[in-house]
Amino acid sequence: MDLSAGGSGRMTIALVVLLGLAAAAWETMEPGKYRSLTMILLGFFAVRILLGRMKYRQDEKKLM
What we know:
The mean pLDDT is 90. The chain is an all-alpha fold. The chain has helices at residues 8-28, 33-63.
């Protein structure tokens, strides 16, 4: 598993952690605005991780 700065292993670990946090929030929080806000924030972080990985791969292709 590649755990370098742009490695896919690092991205996978981050997304699994966010998934675990989302599952924990879903199970422990009562339905309402706070749970919705939590899911939106966790989704935002997941999208940022994916966009960062895509940018890294694009920059890596430009160097070659």
